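Rather than argue in generalities, we have chosen a single entry, letters for residues, whole numbers for local backbone shapes, without further comment.
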Amino acid sequence: MGIIKLKNIRTFSNHGCLIEESKIGSQYRVDLEIEADLTLSAQTDRLGDTVDYVHLNKIVVEEMAIRSELLEHVAQRIIDRTLNELELVEKVTVEVAKINPPIGGDVQEVTILLTKKR
């Protein structure tokens, strides 16, 4: 089993429960980690034998562009698409962080972390 990580994917999105959040938007950070059997790709050196991290990044960017009220919902969509579209993936962990959330305090980020196995 191997691990592929995409760290610090930055997006600008309009997630949140407040009307202002849907209009103004915020900066987000996403970290994605998958577990898969990478034995074959380590031997063959062929992209078709591994989990393409370009595909993983595409899933994150596309799902972050779809507005949701809750970060949990966005994270779950990323997990579901990853497992549905990439058969080699056995486990997905996604962390979605809203940077400088509008919660009336000096908070760097609010983060949701979800994990799912096949």
In short: The chain has a mean pLDDT of 95. The first strand starts at residue 2 and ends at 13. The chain has four helices and four strands.
